[in-house]
Design a protein that fits this description.
14-stranded antiparallel sheet; single chain
Length: 355
């Protein structure tokens, strides 16, 4: 039987039931959220992935308190039902599409109830297509939206309400990425460079992303400024923005940054660090799409100060940053970076050598 809940909605893109997504085993469908108080404290993040052709879904929730990043991981069999947005103790509710979503968590001493409301219409980023030789490694679309959060997070019995003015970012992406068990004939990925800077400013949102080759040449990049309340036609876009971001000594993590978009310049000053492995990215055990059986749940507490910065599963980070723009405009945002392999602008020459 291939019929599912999705087949009763007018969302089909092919003549097949919604359970099928073309023929590429690496097709995925993903939710991502992060949030933080106006001073950058209280950082939290969520990821929820559906992998139709692997018949797996997984979810992750993380929150930082002090120097510890508390992580909750879950994985289950999808049973071909893509409309069921619950994975063990983590659940997503779409309250109003493209505007408001809710995340509910309850398991392993970690619980939360948080609601996201967008500040403006989501931006649609340029389609990401990346090939290594004849192989298509990535081919996906992503929408991104900044917004406000309300709710609370509880860890081991200590419940803290989200601070007034808590903001953050959510995205939705779907298409093809490397997921699940490694392809034995894949040849590996020897180089990958990614930066992403979704920022919440007082009355507007700032977005910049960069995928680049080893010599620094971009293969996908764009900057967008989205004033609060704007629809899809009210954004300012540029494909000529530049980021100058030297790595912190002994790491591949951003130490600071200066983003230039036309005549505007924004400086990034890190005030905290989030490890993306907590959401499954580069995690050897909880990597996206891995088969953990019918249901598997695990808590993982990370001592952020003790992590080796050049261990491969620690390379992918979001630095929580204070951002200063023109005329003293200030805000808070994330500066995500993953640098694997050589990257000439940072002087990186090996797979994981530090700056």
């Amino acid at each position: 039987m291939t019929l599912s809940k999705g087949d009763d909605f007018p969302i089909h893109q092919t003549p097949e039931p919604v359970a099928y997504s073309g023929t590429d085993r690496n097709f995925y469908d993903r939710y991502f959220f992060n949030g933080y108080a106006p001073d950058g404290s209280g950082f939290f993040a969520v990821a929820f992935g559906v992998y139709p052709h692997l018949d797996v879904c997984d979810a992750h929730f993380c929150a930082i308190r002090g120097d510890t990043q508390y992580c909750l991981h879950a994985s289950r069999k999808l049973a071909m039902e893509r409309m069921d947005l619950a994975c063990g103790p983590i659940r997503i509710e779409v309250i109003e599409p493209l505007k408001s979503l809710r995340v509910i968590v309850d398991g392993e001493g970690i619980s939360a109830d948080i609601t996201f409301t967008g500040r403006a219409f989501p931006i649609e980023e340029p389609r990401f297509v990346w090939r290594v030789g004849p192989r298509t490694v990535m081919d996906y679309t992503r929408l991104t939206q900044n917004g406000h959060y309300t709710g609370w997070i509880e860890i081991d019995g200590e419940r803290i309400d989200l601070a007034d003015g808590t903001t953050g970012t959510r995205d939705r992406s779907w298409g093809v990425r490397p997921i699940g068990a490694s392809d034995p004939q894949g040849g590996g990925i020897g180089q990958f460079f990614w930066q992403w800077t979704p920022v919440n400013l007082p009355s507007r949102s700032l977005f910049f992303h960069l995928n680049a080759h080893a010599d620094g040449t971009p293969w996908n990049t764009r900057a967008v400024i989205a004033p609060d309340g704007e629809g899809p036609g009210g954004f300012t876009e540029s494909e000529r923005a530049t980021m100058d971001a030297p790595a912190a000594q002994g790491t591949r993590w951003p130490g600071s940054g200066t983003l230039t978009i036309g005549e505007e310049r924004f400086t990034f000053e890190p005030v905290g660090r989030f490890q993306m492995r907590g959401l499954g990215y580069t995690s050897p055990k909880w990597g996206h799409g891995l088969d953990h059986g019918e249901l598997d749940i695990e808590r993982e507490d990370l001592d952020l100060a003790a992590l080796n910065p050049v261990q491969i599963d620690n390379l992918h980070v979001q630095m929580i940053c204070k951002v200063t723009g023109p005329d003293g405009e200030t805000g808070i945002g994330g500066f995500e970076q993953l640098a694997i392999g050589p990257y000439a602008p940072l002087g990186l020459t090996d797979i994981i050598d530090p700056a």
